[in-house]
Write a structure and sequence with these properties.
single chain, alpha/beta, Metallo-beta-lactamase, Chain A, 5-stranded mixed beta sheet, 12 strands, binds zinc ion
């Protein structure tokens, strides 16, 4: 084990959400050179009777291995399935740790990982470390149902944030693992693959699902410890895009802060401000103006 991996261990906090559902959180580090480490986030694993479905492999090399070894050691897991929610690097960097397993993902996720393989493996993509690419070896589009023992696990594609993005719905307990479809306090726009209107419609479609508990990738660990978010998070993310669209033509749009746009949602306590998201908000303003 390298020193780098040992350092990673100290950055992963484990939260037992249910006896079959665990969160692995990489922490919020406002001074870290990597944006994903500043924003903070984590991943989730479902586990039962020696088998696990791990959702995403985290944001630094070694973290996926750490999660796998933790589950082997503490839950006697011997059989793993990995689900890659989308191709963004903070979700797929350690897929290699599951190279012997079924890795499920959207067709687009596999295509993008292969397309960017050389850049990823050379460590030349954004601020991420170099990593060995291991794309999904079982792909689908739309909807796929899995069972972990008697636990039904539904993978749903939503055209939000990135093409081929998967959310994980556990219909029995109405739990939704959102990955990057929803974020606290605001989400990352990309309107290159689907219009803002399409993405709003997709969020409305999500709101119509029977969901009581939401667990996103990027949020504070306190929210996870307190049992996740209600559907109000979907509403807050919808409102963010609607308000951004409504203000896009205002003369002061360029100086409008995320805090100002989301004042009502922040006051209500549904979401909470986290300063590194200023950077995401500034990116979002430019992305929106490129596409309106
Ligand atoms: Zn993403």
């Amino acid at each position: 084990m390298t020193q780098e991996v040992i350092n990673m261990e100290h950055k992963i906090e484990v939260v037992e959400i249910r006896d079959y559902l665990t969160c692995f959180y990489w922490g919020r580090h406002p001074e870290d050179p990597m944006l994903d480490m500043r924003l903070g986030g984590g991943t989730y694993a479902l586990h039962k009777n020696g088998r696990a479905i791990v959702i995403d492999s985290m944001t630094r090399p070694g973290q996926g291995t750490w999660v796998r070894e933790y589950l082997e050691r503490t839950h006697q897991i011997t059989h793993f399935t990995l689900v890659s929610s989308h191709w963004h690097v903070d979700h797929i960097i350690d897929n290699h740790a599951y190279a012997d397993s079924v890795i499920i993902g959207h067709k687009h996720t596999r295509d993008m990982m292969l397309k960017k393989k050389a850049v990823f493996e050379a460590g030349e993509y954004s601020d991420y470390d170099a990593f060995k690419v291991e794309p999904p070896n079982l792909v689908f589009e739309g909807r796929l149902d899995l069972w972990l023992g008697d636990l039904k696990v539904e993978l749903h594609e939503y055209k939000v944030h990135e093409a081929g993005h998967l959310g994980v719905l556990l219909p029995d307990e109405k739990i939704f693992i959102a990955n990057d479809i929803l974020e606290d306090p605001l989400w990352f726009f990309d309107f290159g693959f689907a219009s803002a209107e399409t993405q709003l419609n997709e969020l409305e479609r999500l709101k119509n699902q029977e969901i009581d508990f939401i667990f996103p990738c990027h949020c504070s660990i306190d929210k996870i410890k307190k049992g996740g978010f209600s559907k109000k998070l979907i509403e807050a993310n919808i409102n963010y895009l609607k308000k951004m669209m409504a203000h896009a033509a205002d003369p002061d749009f360029d100086t409008m802060t995320g805090k100002t746009i989301l004042q009502d949602e922040l006051d209500s306590g549904v979401i909470e401000w986290w300063e590194p998201y200023t950077e995401v908000h500034e990116f979002n303003k430019k992305e929106l103006l490129r596409h309106v």
